[in-house]
């Protein structure tokens, strides 16, 4: 009866027949994972594609969440962690927020004029380096509704979480605290007890949950993990478990690697162990909710900040990467992420097929808390609360545009993307005359550019994207009058710039995609 009763409560509250009090307002726990590919969990995000999951990885708590709740086939984060985190907090797309990349503090306010980009085809843009003062954040919209908010772990937005409304937080943290093995540590030390700080983070979160439960106060808890970020760490026993698995042992032999000498950053057993250890902390939180008697009234959301390209997928023979590119890029490999949600009114064992994006979380959480998302201003997100309760999305929702904007050089070249329904336009500013359109329903790997076959669709979406960028004041790169082809070719990332940039017709598959 749990699901049915919760669903009835949700419907009655939505139409105003139930007044939410402190005792009935749902709690919200957000398990936010760093650098986790769409194919990085043991749960298939798409049942048709076996490589949309990581078969060897064992995560019983996340698996239970998927069985009890809803998974999202087409969930999108951002191309990089900080812009994705700003979108989460503000409900704004990156082009609107202006926070499009971690660039550090630079003097320019529009174009990035640093010497390292001189001679390249474009003059790229700078990025904002903090949340805009006039943007409202998750804690700020929830506080008037009676919520206390905590942010535990990685912040990486170069600002004070307390100033954004969090009463419990770890400060303006970057990746650094999560790398507990200092530079030079090649293997997991025998005495490691808190890899990526995940267990101490969980203990802090449990204390916050207990305090709010005792105060009979609804809460929002964001667990922003340092895992699964590079610099893998796990408990020694968990690493040993995976190192002794037949598939992993066969991988060591197949690649000629000695597991006793292998650097932890290249050891798949460490990466798998990191995932399982993180899942253990998921279980700690879920168990605490049960013990306090508030699990029935708590939404638990798991999602990642950006996509990735885990080489650990290749440990299973025959597996290939399902998506193109990785973090930093707006190809689906860089922006598509795993997402699972469980809680009151969410039907068990279901899959949502529509496109959802990270800036949908703020209005969703606001509606769960009893607010009206239509009253929120200057945001791009749409509340998913109704859809999570079983409402069928209409064409307007299914074809709404999602925007991604990376006007920078770093591991990537300046580009943007718009996704509407199954269609996606990629636009590279160094190749504006190469139209790019993909049908993600037929071509999730973005191999076949069909822009010349459907030119009207390409032009319509490109025009919609550019109009939106103008509306929100997105920074746009420009041609470099001092472009030097030879200097461009000498750039260390030149080969990737060319391989992952614009193309006509079909692109050649990478070795791990074939």
Question: Span between N and C termini?
Answer: 46 Å
> Given the helix and strand composition, which structural class is it?
alpha/beta
Largest sheet: 9 strands, mixed
Shape: globular
Rg calc = 22 Å
Count of alpha and pi helical runs: 16
Notes on the structure:
By secondary structure, this protein is an alpha/beta fold. It has 16 helices and 15 strands. The chain has helices at residues 2-14, 60-68, 81-90, 94-97, 138-142, 198-214, 236-243, 246-255, 268-291, 332-335, 361-368, 385-388, 395-398, 455-472, 485-489, 494-499, and strands spanning 27-33, 70-76, 122-123, 148-153, 168-169, 219-224, 298-304, 336-337, 339-342, 350-357, 401-406, 415-420, 423-428, 437-439, 478-479. Strands 1, 2, 4, 5, 6, 7, 8, 9 and 10 form a 9-stranded mixed beta sheet that branches. Strand 11 (401-406) and strand 12 form a beta hairpin. The longest helix is centred in the middle third of the chain and has 24 residues, at 268-291.
Question: What is the element layout, followed by pairings?
Answer:
Elements: H1 2-14, E1 27-33, H2 60-68, E2 70-76, H3 81-90, H4 94-97, E3 122-123, H5 138-142, E4 148-153, E5 168-169, H6 198-214, E6 219-224, H7 236-243, H8 246-255, H9 268-291, E7 298-304, H10 332-335, E8 336-337, E9 339-342, E10 350-357, H11 361-368, H12 385-388, H13 395-398, E11 401-406, E12 415-420, E13 423-428, E14 437-439, H14 455-472, E15 478-479, H15 485-489, H16 494-499
Parallel strand pairs: 1-6, 1-7, 2-10, 4-5, 4-6
Antiparallel strand pairs: 2-8, 2-9, 3-15, 7-9, 11-12, 12-13, 13-14
Helix pairs in contact: 6-9, 7-9
């Amino acid at each position: 009866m749990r699901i049915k009763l919760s669903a009835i409560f949700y419907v009655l509250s939505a139409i105003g027949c139930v007044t939410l009090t402190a005792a009935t307002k749902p709690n919200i726990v957000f398990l936010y994972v760093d650098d986790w590919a769409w194919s990085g969990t043991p749960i298939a995000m798409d049942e048709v594609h076996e490589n949309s999951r990581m078969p060897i990885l064992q995560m019983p708590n996340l698996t239970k969440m998927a069985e009890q709740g809803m998974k999202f086939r087409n969930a999108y984060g951002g191309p990089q962690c900080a812009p994705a985190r700003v979108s989460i907090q503000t409900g704004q797309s990156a082009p609107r927020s202006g926070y499009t990349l971690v660039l550090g503090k630079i003097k320019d306010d529009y174009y990035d004029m640093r010497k390292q980009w001189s001679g390249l085809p474009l003059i790229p843009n700078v990025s904002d380096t903090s949340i805009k003062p006039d943007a409202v954040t998750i804690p700020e919209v929830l506080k008037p509704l009676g919520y206390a908010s905590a942010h535990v772990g990685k912040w990486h937005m170069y600002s004070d979480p307390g100033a954004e409304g969090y009463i419990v937080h770890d400060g303006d943290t970057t990746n650094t605290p999560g790398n507990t093995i200092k530079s030079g540590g090649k293997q997991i030390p025998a005495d490691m007890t808190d890899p990526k700080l995940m267990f101490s983070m969980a203990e802090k979160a449990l204390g916050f949950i207990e305090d709010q439960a005792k105060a009979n106060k609804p809460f929002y808890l964001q667990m922003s993990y340092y895992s699964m970020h590079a610099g893998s760490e796990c408990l020694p026993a968990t690493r040993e478990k995976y190192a002794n698995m037949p598939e992993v042992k066969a991988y060591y032999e197949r690649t000629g690697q000695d597991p006793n000498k292998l650097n932890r950053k290249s050891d798949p057993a460490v990466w798998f162990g990191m995932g399982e250890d993180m899942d253990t902390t998921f279980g700690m939180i879920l168990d605490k909710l049960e013990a306090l008697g508030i699990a029935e009234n708590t939404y638990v959301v798991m999602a990642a900040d950006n996509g990735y390209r885990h080489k650990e997928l290749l440990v299973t023979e025959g597996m290939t990467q399902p998506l193109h590119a990785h973090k930093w890029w707006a190809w689906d490999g860089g922006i598509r992420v795993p997402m699972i949600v469980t809680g009151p009114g969410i039907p068990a064992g279901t899959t949502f097929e529509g496109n959802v994006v990270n800036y949908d979380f703020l209005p969703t959480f606001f509606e769960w808390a009893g607010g009206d998302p239509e009253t929120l201003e200057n945001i791009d997100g749409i509340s998913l609360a109704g859809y999570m309760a079983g409402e069928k999305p209409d064409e307007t929702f299914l074809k709404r545009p999602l925007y991604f904007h990376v006007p920078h050089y770093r591991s990537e070249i300046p580009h943007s993307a718009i996704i509407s329904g199954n269609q996606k336009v990629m636009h590279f500013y160094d190749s504006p005359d190469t139209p790019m359109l993909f049908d993600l329903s037929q071509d999730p790997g973005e191999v076949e550019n069909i822009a010349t076959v459907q030119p009207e669709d390409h032009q319509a979406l490109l025009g919609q994207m550019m109009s939106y960028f103008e509306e929100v004041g997105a920074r746009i790169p420009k041609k470099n009058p001092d472009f030097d082809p030879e200097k461009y070719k000498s750039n260390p990332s030149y080969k990737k710039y060319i391989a992952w940039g614009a193309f006509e017709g079909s692109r050649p598959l990478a070795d791990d995609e074939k």
